[in-house]
Design goal:
127 residues, alpha+beta, Glutaredoxin, three-stranded antiparallel beta sheet, 4 helices, 8 strands, 31% helix
Length: 127
């Protein structure tokens, strides 16, 4: 996600609603500077952790440049599904294990990320 991205801003409400209804943990990776990200998190009333990537290091590692893009990672570190999430329906499809891409759903093979070195990022503290 990134500040100023309309679909990213719009999906925050849906992410909060899903987090309140389901036992899931959400981590948002934001692109931008720390002050912009803090302001965004405060304005959008973000209730989940926000990691800050400064130079696309996470986007490059996971080859994801479209926003908002999400991964469903299970307890073992396996990516169960992934895709663009522009609305609540997309989030539901992602949580059901389907891949969401350009508004269509597809099955997706699982990817193990548990043994990968995590990319470096900074956590933007929400005050």
């Amino acid at each position: 996600m990134q500040p100023g991205c309309g679909p990213c801003n719009g999906v925050v409400t849906d992410l909060r609603a899903f987090q309140e209804k389901k036992p899931i943990s959400i981590l948002v990776v934001q692109k931008g500077n720390a002050d912009e990200v803090r302001k965004w998190a405060h304005e959008k009333e973000v209730r989940f952790p926000v990691a800050l990537q400064e130079k696309d290091e996470i986007s490059r590692k996971y080859e994801t440049f479209a926003t908002p893009f999400a991964f469903l990672v299970n307890e073992s570190g396996i990516i169960e599904s992934k895709g663009v999430i522009n609305n609540g329906k997309h989030i539901q499809l992602l949580l059901s294990g389907r891949r969401v891409l350009d508004g269509s759903e597809q099955s997706d093979k699982k990817t193990d990320v548990s043994q990968e070195d995590p990319p470096t990022s900074k956590k933007a503290e929400v005050a």
